Amino acid sequence: MIEGARFREVMASFPGGVVILTAFGDDHQPRGLTVSAFCAASLDPPLALVCIDKKSNTLPAVQHTGGFTANILAAGREQLARRMATKLSDKFGGIAWHRPESKIGGPVLKDDTAAYAVCTLRDTMEAGDHWILIGLVTEGHHVEGVTPMVFTRRAYS
Fold first, then answer.
1. Is 104 a member of any domain?
2. Residue 3 falls inside a structural domain
3. Which of 22, 49, 78, 130 has the most crowded Cβ, counting Cβ within 10 A?
4. Which residues pair with 10 in a beta bridge?
């Protein structure tokens, strides 16, 4: 089996988008974290999958509401990506967001996204130290002309 450090280096070489996954906690407050493992899983029905650490502070909010919002970050939003990757208690202070039409999803980041997808949690699968969440996309939007952020080899571009 490959060593953990080598595995990280190999996987860091694969470029991916940067997503802020959001949900509302049982206290109705927003929760969020930065993820790079997000992709389309099916066109019919429209499914997306995301991988989330089992220790994530946002996971209980996703479980509570039965859904999440995947905010696909726009290029140049590195500071927000780094902030959401922390364990800060108030990650949303000073950030413009609104509630999605659905009561299932989390906050939609107004000024920081190239697109977003609101998902109803459909399936979960255990995968080592993460959960793979599969969501039915019920709502979404993309902003014409806004370039999404890319993360590769531990750097944003």
1. yes
2. no
3. 22
4. none
Whether residue 4 lies inside any domain: the answer is no
CATH number for the domain harbouring residue 48: 2.30.110.10
DSSP H/E element including 61: helix 59-65
Residue type, 138: T
pLDDT single digits (tens) 90-108: 899 999 999 999 889 999 9
Q: How many domains does the chain have?
A: 1
Q: Is 32 in contact with 107 (CB distance < 8 Å)? A: yes
Measured CA angle at 120 (ends 115, 121), to 5 deg? 115
Q: Are 148 and 17 in contact (CB under 8 A)?
A: yes
* Structural domain boundaries enclosing 127: 17-149
Tokens 């609104």 sit on residue: 98
Instruction: Kindly state the average pLDDT of the residues 119-133.
Output: 96
* Cβ-proximal residues to 46 (8 Å cutoff; 6+ apart), any chain: 40, 136, 137
Q: Is the pTM of this model over 0.90?
A: yes
